[in-house]
Amino acid sequence: MLDLLANPNTQWVLVGTMLLGITSGVLGSFALLRRQSLLGDAMSHAALPGICIAFIIVGSKEMLPLIIGAGITAYIGTYLIQAFVKHSRIKTDTAIGLVLSVFFGIGIVLLTYINRNATGNQSGLNEFIFGQAAAMVRSDVNLFVIAAIALLTITFLLFKEFKIITFDREFAQGLGLPTVFINGLLMTMIVASVVIGLQAVGVVLMAAMLIAPAITAKYWTDRLDVMVILSGVVGGLSGLLGTLISAPISGMPTGPLIIVSSCSLFFLSLIFAPKKGLLTKAIRLMRLRKSTSQNQVMQGIYEFIEETGRNTLTLDDLISVQPLSGLRLQQTIKRLQKRNWLQRSTETYQFTDKGIKEAHQITLNQRMLQMYSMHEMQFAHLPMEKNNWDFLSLPNSEQQPLFELLSKHELFPSVLQERTEDR
Amino acid sequence: MNPVSTNNITVAYHRKPVIQNVSFEAPEGKLIGIVGPNGAGKSTLIKSILGLVPKASGNISIYGKPYKKQRQIVGYVPQRGSVDWDFPTNALDVVLMGKYGQIGLIRRPNKKDKQEALECLAQVGMEAFANRQISQLSGGQQQRVFLARALAQNAFVYFMDEPFVGVDAATEKAIIQLLTDLKSKGKTVLVVHHDLQTVKDYFDWVMLLNIRKIAFGPTEEVFTQEHLQKTYGGRLAFLDQESNGVNPLA
Predict the structure, then answer these.
(1) Per-residue model confidence as pLDDT tens digits over A355-380
(2) What stretches in chain B show pLDDT beneath 50?
(3) Which of A87, A313, B53, B58 has the smallest count of CB within 10 Å of its CB?
(4) Which parts of the sequence belong to the ABC transporter domain (chain B) (predicted)?
């Protein structure tokens, strides 16, 4: 491994793939948020005929002309998609599908033509389909460095403008910002980041290079600046991993391994990211279910006592006063017993002193919410959303009108009423 | 000079006229409601004034000059559904966007800009939500963030597209308060509105629009049965039912 890293060729490839990962990660964030992920796919496929035409004209595999050719047809493809959507009844997905396959088809035809009329120079052109990172040489990397610096600097300088145009273009236009220019520039930069990645990753997989780091980053943050930086880091890391994994094994393709790396990072985030990850969401849902079923049972029992005046409930009573399924009811009853809110004596259940106070609070809060909803306009000033709909934590003066409404509607929780009025 | 004056604006999509020959002169310091049936061109009217949809013909001036030269003094509150609320940003940041025009290209917002944005949030009762991710806000709160963003523009003329749609009571109250504040500062506000019940309470002036301008003037003079009939036509039967005291809030 270390031997390989000492090899200057590997070093160039490593620098190259990392740079590509960083730029496509950064610009991919904007593509993703603009809902243009698929457009990236069309761009990269549309680049193929450009590469071939540039080769036919120049007659060699010089990187710069090939990239310029790729950029031109990718841009034409993108423009056509937007023009179709704007001026005809064709929808975006159809336009993308159409342009992508037609341009790719033309590219393959041209590629075949070039191979038939081989002069010996053309070997390696096929690699643009699936990418051949290992073929990167120093002059290629120099080009990438310049491109990456330019793209990242512009993104840094115009970050605020890119943000507003991505979030709300009409508003940006209303502010008098040069939206046509900014939009065109951002679009050009996304095309540029796609075409410079083609050699390493290939036209087929390039879209993933754009999307995977961005969507991974979005799982970890709620801020655009952090997302863009993280996305660049994920892209760069994928480039690094893909290259390192493929280097020691001869014949392992670097491009696909870069994609596999970034997709692995995505799946890890999908599951384990704090706040947005599936695992956190599942845990949160479980907790919510627990507390809701607890409240339902507590209020159910309280209202049973309120109605019938009986302090003890049989299991059948318990089943009838709340909507939970048998298993969940059993679990909830066990939890309530553990908290020492509910006690069991052979065949019946009853509240403990602590339990009835708790149930009173739960019921009171629930009914205050009911009053609040009925007379929402009157209570519009209350910060209910901020305090999680906890009416009991409001100052007494704010609670008073709600109490009066409860009395008026004869909904004041009555089992423990005297005690509350004492307070 | 009038804050907004238009001369024969016509907008057409695919040859179908959406609004036709609408001319009006909005007076300064008034809250002006624009009402009319669905598809009457209410949103299109303000979007065409703001240059967001192309006009087939007509002229617009803001305080006597073309809109393009007056952008800095015009604020806009688009419909809430026009953006992706899952965008990774917080409430304060959205409000700051209202200042991007004043800040200028490339330059970043400074402390003072942030302070002012925070004050705008406070004006709509949302200062506690400054750092809240925008997808975590309720619909009404999102609407208030949009209003705060327009405030941050520090404009003289405001255009609002259906700000009362789908909002909670707290937001409705905040919007009314805000409109009153703006008016007391001499600002002019044009609001696309569709709830006829509240027109008289909210607006000093009203425009009744159904592709063409039906009437425009002080609410008590123009908001009449006759004009409503002309604007809504057969659909008025439904209106009568509503105004017959069935509404429990009335």
Answers:
(1) 999 999 999 999 999 898 888 777 87
(2) 237-250
(3) A87
(4) 4-236
Amino acid of residue B137: L
**Each residue of B105-125: pLDDT tens digit?**
899 999 999 999 999 999 998
Best mutation target among B84, B92, B131, B135 (most A Cβ atoms within 10 Å) is B84
Answer whether A2-274 and A280-422 agree in fold: no
Residues B170, A381: C-beta atoms closer than 8 Å:
yes
Interface contact B89, partner A, CB < 8 A: yes
Mean pLDDT, residues A191-214:
92
∠ Cα A385 B83 B186 (to 5°): 75
| A129 in contact with B, Cβ within 8 Å | no
- CATH number of the A2-274 domain: 1.10.3470.10
- How many angstroms separate the CA of residue A90 from the nearest CA in chain B? 15
Cα–Cα–Cα angle for A400, A406, A409, rounded to 5 degrees: 145
Q: What are the boundaries of each domain within chain A?
A: 2-274, 280-422
Say which of B71, B88, B100 has its CB closest to residue A223.
B88
CA nearest A125: which of A53, A215, A188, A180? A53
CATH architecture classification, A280-422: Orthogonal Bundle (1.10)
CA distance A76 to chain B (A): 25
How many Å is the Cα radius of gyration of chain A? 32
**A–B CB contacts, 8 A cutoff, strictly below:** 95
- Tell if the CB–CB gap between A33 and B141 is shorter than 8 Å: no
Task: Report angle CA B167, B171, B172 to the nearest 5 degrees.
Answer: 80
